[in-house]
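Researcher: We're reviewing a set of sequences before deciding which ones to prioritize for further study. For each one, I'd like a predicted 3D structure that I can look through quickly. This is Glutaminyl-peptide cyclotransferase. If possible, include the structure in token form so it fits the rest of the review sheet.
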Amino acid sequence: MSRNAHSPEPLPAQIVREYGPFDGADKIAGVTYDGHRVWAAAGAQMLAFDPASGRVERRLERAADAGTAFDGTYLYQIAEARIDKIDPATGDVLASIPAPGAGGDSGLAWAEGSLWVGQYRERKIHRIDPATGAVLRTIESNRFVTGVTWVDGDLWHATWEGDASELRHVDPDSGAVLERLAMPPDTFVSGLESDGAELFYCGGGSSGRVRAVRRPKTRAG
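Model: Here's the predicted structure for Glutaminyl-peptide cyclotransferase, in token form for your review sheet.
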């Protein structure tokens, strides 16, 4: 895998809606989408809100420090140096596996039967076995990785470095940057998820917000 030395010029990210801040949530880390609700990691809890109304519908009292993912049935949540598999109906932790960054992990996504984990300062994205945590492959980035998502076979990751954030579409084999969306100044991305259609949901870190960003039309099909 190689870091990308050349990348396209960034396009301005189009923020179409902001959610929050939410009661009891000082910051937002990871985000995921279960097809109906957006789940957000908020420190000592996970909260789920309706993206149409913005109303919080669920709260799970679970440690939620970084990335969040959904496999179609279960939630996965980075908590300190582990990844918890959580039943969204009950909030029970069904299993835990070690996170590859041993506490330096950021984003989390589900795709192709695997978990994809961003390792923040190491600027890496790992594909791991969801049952054991074993690293199956690694993609390198040239920016800090703060969020990871897949949509229509495309791998995107968020960055937050040098007081600037971007969403980046990268080649999953080489790590080459294919598209860049630059967030407005002082608008940071702490987690990333696609709705499977035209939007990305972005955790807003210490702002306590989640932002919906329009996915580039050329890639939305």
